[in-house]
Amino acid sequence: MNRDPLPAIERILFTEEQIALRIQEVAAEITERYRGKPLKLIGVLKGSVFFLTALARHIQIPVKIDFLAISSFSNRSSAPGVVRIAKDLDEGIENEDVLLVEDIVDTGLTLRYLLQTLSSRGPNSLGVCTFLDRNSRRLVQIPVEFRCFEIPDHFVIGFGLDHNQLYRNLTYVAVMKPEKNT
Ligand code: IMP
């Protein structure tokens, strides 16, 4: 399924196989880093869901999972950095080792807001694991402990990433054709 590129796609950046291999590597790094500590993964809805579930399956220590959702105006077509929590975590994170799992870090403004908010809740540690990292567009410096792929400055879709809520279910990551991304 999802094998034939869609008309909206310019080129495939990472195949399903490349993604699976890289996620296993990052999961192994996380396993080593947090061995002996119960880990809580916090996914940012909706984009990180595909990545988080794939990652969690390969982490070899017990993990808890929670989600939050944000309303973000931090996209390419509007003012960046205006973010609020639309759905909060189900449980507190006090004294827990927490890894925030993101689909992509672009300007870093969303993550800065989330890190500020979550760190005020008293976790034992608070790290960041992102599927994609577009460092070239960063506006604020954010510590990213784990990343799967660094990507060039093009709008991408698939494996959780959307354009107008579409294409999250693609098994690969692709660059959109510029004319479809306006
Ligand atoms: P930031 O606050 O600029 O780092 O934006 C992060 C959010 O913008 C991500 O969680 C995505 O929801 C969205 N985003 C940024 N770049 C892309 C992209 O290339 N494709 C799909 N969504 C993106």
Description:
Helix content is 22%, strand content 31%. With 182 residues, the protein is α/β, with parallel strands linked by helices. The protein has a single domain, classed as Rossmann fold (3-Layer(aba) Sandwich), CATH 3.40.50.2020. The longest helix has 19 residues, at 16-34. The two termini are 27 Å apart. The mean pLDDT is 92. The structure holds inosinic acid.
Sum this structure up briefly.
The chain is α/β, with parallel strands linked by helices and 182 residues long. Helices cover 22% and strands 31% of the residues. The protein has a single domain (16-73, 81-150), classed as Rossmann fold.
Examine the secondary-structure arrangement and name the CATH architecture: 3-Layer(aba) Sandwich
What does the radius of gyration come to?
16 Å
Which series of helices and strands comes N to C?
Answer: EHEHEEEHEEEE
Task: State which percent range the strand residues make up.
Answer: 25-35%
* pLDDT < 50 runs, ≥5 residues: none
Quick one: CATH class?
Answer: Alpha Beta
| N-to-C CA distance | 27 Å
Number of alpha- plus pi-helical segments: 3
Q: For the largest beta sheet, what order do the strands appear in spatially?
A: 4-3-2-5-6-7
In the residues, how many domains can be counted?
A: 1
Share of residues in helices: 10-25%
Which distinct ligands sit in these coordinates? inosinic acid
Q: State the major sheet.
A: 6 strands, mixed
SS elements, strand count: 9
Give the overall silhouette: globular
In the CATH scheme, what's the topology name? Rossmann fold
Class per helix and strand makeup: alpha/beta
**Kindly state the mean pLDDT as a whole number?**
92
